[in-house]
Amino acid sequence: MSVEAAVDDGNGQRPAGRPILEVENLRTTFYTRRETVRAVDGVSFDVYPGETVGLVGESGAGKSVTARSLMGLVDAPGRIEAGSSIRFNGRELTNLTEQAWRQVRGGAIAMVFQDPLSSLNPVYTIGNQIREALRLHQGLEGSAAREEAISLLEAVGIPDASRRIREYPHQFSGGMRQRAVIAMALACDPEVLIADEPTTALDVTIQAQILDLLQEIQADRDLAIIFITHDMGVIAEICDRVHVMYAGEIVETAQVEAMFDDPKHPYTQGLLESIPGRHPDADRLLTIEGEVPTPTEAPTYCRFAPRCSKAFEACDTVHPVLVPVTDDATDHEAACLLYPEDDIREDAIDRHRRAAAASEDTDE
Amino acid sequence: MSDTLTIEEQSLRQRVETNPTPAMLWFVGVLILTLLEFGALLQVLVQLLNIVVTALQLHFAAGGLTAAGKMAADVPTFLSRKVISNQGYQPGGTGPWTGTFMGIEPKWAWFLRVVLIYGYAFAWLGWVWYGYLTFRRHYRYADWTPRDDVVDRLRHHRWGMFGFVVVFMFVVMAVFAPALGTATLDQNILHPYDYNVHYWDASTGQVASVPVGIANIKSKSQGAGGNNVGLWSYDDFGRFHPFGTLVSGKDLFTFIAHGARISLLIGVTSMGLAAFLAITMATLTAYYKGLVDLFIVVTSDSVQALPLIMILILMVVIFSNTWIADVYNGALLLIIIFTIIYWPYLWRAVRGPALQISEEEWIDAAKSFGQRPRAIMRKHMSPYIIGYMLVYASLSLGGVIIATAGLTFLGLGINPPTPEWGRAINAGQPYVATASWHISLIPGLLITLVVTAFNALGDGIRDAVDPQSETGEAEATAATAGGGGA
């Protein structure tokens, strides 16, 4: 955990300087003939250099669509709505042409996919695929590219790299494959690395190795990592800052210690409760009943309310926005009518109602 | 494998330099095989250059080329009719022949040449295979690649290998047509009155000379009542006709050998173009989807909605008086028509696989590191489609050959004098029930054999590329042997 210590001192302080990636009111909507799905619905967060930001949530929460939006890889019928803003080093990305996007992809923001086997093309050798990325982003060809590919494979901890560079993906074990995929992403020399569930397809011991590897790489290259997972355990292991997503929205955001010590949103509480082993004495695992709804319309209510044990009447009529959990909390926000904790319930509800109305106006 | 343990990756050239013996051995073999036919190779080159020069009207180069052509003609070629001649006469009607190879009978001289040519071609095939094995054993780093399995499956696919051998023999016939025929195309078919044939005239008891055209007229195959020169027989002028003669008295085997050339040219060129179009369209539509896809779907549907035979005939008639129809006696026109008509079928066949590939995560991964769309289509999508394309193109190729023969049969496809199998079938039609049955039957059987072989090869490739599709050889045979026609 030396990396984390370097980034923040454990007191929940964000690193100094400008964020490298600023996401503001990102809305990605899929227009199908039957319905419009607001897969990502007004998500805002910042990523600082050298920081690991976690996006956590159940399947269907919009984590992956957020990641794809950041890469400009939203396929039709989906599109990023006007009013969304993604800034990389202060440069707006949402209005880029396809050609300009290609420069950003890989070079600025690279991505590691969930299944390392299917994200490698089985008919080309590992070396071939890494060299492809090297040629695109560092202009390396021939033996220079080969040398660089070997050193990248060594950097991600693949032994005997000069031989394995000639092997095909099927000759690699699962963990080695994911290392190779990470090497491919690093070949682009990115400043932000999006890791979309990079450890989900791996077994537990390998998971830990890959997480260690990511932290090493981060320390070496001052890389910002956006880590997407549904596994709270992994979040605790690697992240500095966590955003909990639910039905296309961020419902709670905090530094990782605060999140685990004192989760505020009922959904986060539910997620933490349902980690196996947290209540060794309980007969059965605690779960959150029901499923994530598909957000098809602009919210006028709390999307979590139907599954929430603490829901009350106002939850069905007022859409909560992110507010500080207490009046003096600067770095811990939750989108729940229960907060700010210090306010009287009616005042809090009123605050949410007004904020929701205001954002509605700017959207239209 | 000692070479897989070397630490530094070397280029193929470096690898050959470290261990040159197997490669040298192979190259010596290639050199010997090339030298045997060096003269023919040179002549082909000069002819190709000549076509370019004529097309571009570079008059200053023409003189040099003529000289080069003469020189090329003097370079010895082992398997030529000059060396193993089958044309001569037998003084006195018995004993050794004059003019033929070592004085043997023309039929054996011709037979020897054919056997040697096919032996030579199979030697090349074997040597290329040996070269591949040498590369695999001595110079390739990987012990195994996915392609090895494809090749091995094809090798052990008996029906596919049958197809491969027949197709190979058909290709050899087309390539070596000038040397295989009992006489040259120019002498026997195109300009028979420009050449003389010497023969032993038994009535006068001396060697006489007659223009080939006259000899042809006296060697007609016209059924029981008239003349007939049937299978494996001589005509009155000491000329041997392995497949007999045509109605016009021309040699059927020479006609068929050159007809194979044009069938193959039309089939391969039009299927190659159609396959290229289809792969381009398939990757484009699978990558971009949406409007591009819709546009091409509508276009191909429109083409497919047209009745095939009618369009073929209409287009041939419409273009019949233009310069396009004159190139190679109508071959260019047929190539263009078949390309236009066949690409939608090929595209349809690979659209599914292409769409499937476009959903693979490595396409996303390639996009995510900023690869250009064209490179993604070429490098990450097309390798998966080319296998399917080989299958469908080889299956359709049989159809193109049948269609070409069919159009020519109707008098619409390839115009005389360029030989085309369909014309022989048409010419022999009135004599099917007579002694001259060979005129229709032999080209007909050959077309059936070649088309079946292309289908068999396609089956073999399909089972090799996609082993899951294998449903048992017998079933596959029954399912496809009938298909493929236009």
Helix content of chain B: 55-70%
Q: What is the strand content of chain B?
A: under 5%
Order of helices and strands of chain A: HEEEHEEEHEHHHHEHEHEEHHEEH
Strand order of the largest sheet of chain A: 7-8-9-3-10-11-13-12
How is the largest sheet of chain B built, in terms of strand order? 1-2
| Strand segment tally of chain B | 4
Order of helices and strands of chain B: HHHHHHHHHEEHEEHHHHHHHHH
Mean pLDDT of chain A: 86
SSE class of chain A: alpha/beta
- CATH fold node name of one domain in chain B: MetI-like fold
Which protein chains are joined by the largest interface, and how many residues does each one contribute? A-B, 40 and 27 residues
Spatial extent as radius of gyration of chain B: 26 Å
Number of helices of chain B: 19
Regarding quaternary structure, what we see is heterodimer
Question: How would you briefly describe this protein structure?
Answer:
Chain A has 364 residues and is of the alpha/beta class. Helices cover 35% and strands 19% of the residues of chain A.
Provide an overview of this structure.
The complex is a heterodimer of chains A (364) and B (486). By secondary structure, chain A is an alpha/beta fold. Chain A has helices spanning 2-7, 63-70, 98-107, 126-138, 142-155, 161-164, 174-187, 204-221, 232-238, 256-261, 266-273, 345-363; strands at 21-31, 36-47, 52-56, 78-80, 85-88, 91-92, 109-112, 192-196, 224-229, 241-246, 249-255, 323-324, 333-334. In chain A, strands 7-8-9-3-10-11-13-12 form an 8-stranded mixed sheet, sandwiched between helices. Mean pLDDT of chain A is 86; it is low at 1-11. Among the domains of chain B are: 195-250, no CATH class; 253-469, MetI-like (MetI-like fold). Chain B has a two-stranded antiparallel ribbon with strand order 1-2. In chain B, helix 11 packs antiparallel against helix 16. The longest helix of chain B is centred in the middle third of the chain and has 37 residues, at 252-288. Chain B starts with 11 loop residues before the first helix and ends in a 5-residue tail after the last helix. Residues 1-7 and 472-486 of chain B have low confidence and may be disordered. The chains are: A alpha/beta (364), B mainly alpha (486). Chain A binds chain B through residues 71, 73, 75-76, 101-107, 110-111, 113, 115, 118-125, 127, 132-133, 136-137, 146, 162-163, 165-168, 181, 184-185, 187-188, and chain B through 4-5, 7-9, 141-142, 145-146, 289-290, 360-362, 364-372, 379-380, 383-384.
